[in-house]
Amino acid sequence: MAKNASMFVKMATILSLFLMFVVLAESRSTLVDGLHKAKSAIVCNQVIGVEVGDDCTTISQSVKMSLESFLAINPNINCEKIFVGQWVCVDGSATN
After folding, report:
1. Local confidence band at 34 (pLDDT 50, 70, 90 cut-offs)
2. Which letter, b or e, does each residue of 17-56 get, where b requires 16 or more Cβ atoms within 10 Å of its Cβ?
3. Pairwise CA distance, residues 73 & 67, whole Å
4. Residue 86 region, left (φ>0) first, then alpha (ψ -120 to 50), else beta?
5. What is the reported pTM?
6. Which UniProt keyword terms apply here (predicted)?
7. pLDDT at residue 69 above 90?
8. Which residue of 1, 34, 49, 94 is surrounded by the most CB atoms within 10 Å?
9. What pLDDT shows up at residue 2?
10. In a 3-state reduction of DSSP, which class is residue 13?
């Protein structure tokens, strides 16, 4: 009986170490990506308040900016939850 318990403990330990290794390996890329993103600086020269009916696409089109550029200078925006009165940057740059 003690031999079976010992085998179970060894297997549980090996499995735990394996899972910890997998989690560490997966989170490493996230941490590295986060450090690279943190190096970029955003400079905003003009902001506007979101109005009724606005969304990310209509705002970017109204200021003759690509959606990609708009999102680059508004990195924390959630286009699904944009709200009236929210300040968004419409003229700026994102540098590394």
Report:
1. low
2. eeeeeeeeeeeeeeeeeeeeeeeeeeeeeeeeebeeebeb
3. 10
4. beta
5. 0.58
6. Chitin-binding, Signal, Virulence
7. yes
8. 94
9. 65
10. helix
Candidate CATH numbers 3.10.350.10, 3.30.420.40, 1.10.1740.10, 1.10.357.10; the one for domain 38-95:
3.10.350.10
Task: Tell me the HSE value of 30 on the side-chain side, using a 13 A CA sphere.
Answer: 5
Contact 49/87 with Cβ under 8 angstroms? yes
Would you place residue 65 in the very low, low, confident or very high pLDDT band (cuts 50, 70, 90)?
very high
pLDDT grade for 13, boundaries at 50, 70 and 90: confident
